[in-house]
Write a structure and sequence with these properties.
- The protein is mostly helical.
- The chain has 2 domains: 10-36 and 238-274; 73-235, Up-down Bundle (f41 fragment of flagellin, N-terminal domain).
- Helix content is 70%, strand content 5%.
- Strand 1 (132-133) and strand 2 (136-137) form a beta hairpin.
- It starts with 9 loop residues before the first helix and ends with a helix.
């Protein structure tokens, strides 16, 4: 049993230490409940905080990667849609050229087919000029390639090459001023358009392959971001059920600690009774 002293109240000192310890633990638990984090800053756990911050940086980086991939994929999708429309127009042009190559047609009849042919030709030029997304056109020869980020630090990229579908080019070989004034010229356009269609199909296949690669990588990045986010949560998120139980226990300990301190503070009063 500790000696009775008016100078030192050892029991009160111990009770106060325990109460302060409980109050600190209660403050930490309340902070976890308020923030939802068991590691909210470096002072909580320096190593875990540093790891989590690194993972958060990667998360932000992969968010940029997703945006970049989606932007490039949309540009490619616009190019594919335009290429498909051009393919349909070329098929119609072939029909007109074949019809105009008929030797039995009158000049007036052939002229009517030619007008349709030129209208389809001009529509191709219109589509090529307007197949743009976010200021980038992959089919008019204005852009050699477009790149998307592939990793969080931007050190690797995915590249999509352009496919110039302009009239009179290496893919669509029909000239911008193509016209059928005779049966023999019309017959020649049939072959020219068939070649253009074959070239265009190959170009669309290349664009389709690029689009699929971008889509696959976008899905991978999405899953990677989800895994990273879950990993950060595992490191720093508080278990709210556990914290709720801790809060109840600490509040009870706090109340008991206050009572213990009150009892300890009454001990010196016993001394006065000794001298009565």
């Amino acid at each position: 049993m500790a000696a009775l002293s008016v100078n030192t109240n050892y029991g009160a000192m111990v009770a106060l230490q325990q109460l302060n310890s409980t109050n600190m633990a209660l403050s930490d638990t309340q902070e976890r409940i308020n923030t939802g984090l068991k590691v909210a800053s470096a002072k909580d756990n320096g190593a875990i905080y540093a790891i989590a911050q690194g993972m958060r940086a990667d998360l932000q980086g992969y968010g940029v990667v997703q945006d970049s991939l989606n932007r490039v994929n949309s540009t490619v999708d616009v190019a594919i849609a335009a290429g498909s429309a051009i393919s349909d127009l070329l098929i119609d042009m072939k029909e007109k050229a074949l019809a105009a190559s008929d030797q039995s047609l009158t000049t007036t009849q052939r002229s009517a087919f030619n007008e349709d042919f030129k209208a389809l030709r001009d529509q191709i030029a219109t589509i090529v000029g307007n197949a743009e997304f976010n200021g980038v056109n992959l089919i008019n020869g204005s852009t050699a390639q477009i790149q998307a980020f592939a990793n969080a630090d931007g050190s690797t990229t995915m590249t999509v090459l352009d496919e110039d579908l302009s009239l009179g080019g290496t893919i669509v070989t029909v000239g911008a001023t193509a016209s059928m004034n005779t049966a023999s010229v019309a017959s020649g356009f049939v072959t020219t358009i068939e070649t253009s269609l074959n070239n265009l199909n190959q170009a669309l296949a290349r664009l389709g392959t690029s689009s699929k690669a971008l889509t696959i990588h976008t899905e991978f990045v999405t899953k990677l971001r989800d895994s990273l986010e879950a990993g950060v949560g595992n490191l720093v998120d508080a278990d709210m059920a556990r914290e709720s139980a801790n809060l109840q226990a600490l509040q009870t300990k706090q109340q008991l600690g206050v009572q213990a301190l009150s009892i300890a503070n009454q001990a010196p009063q016993i001394i006065t009774s000794l001298f009565q």
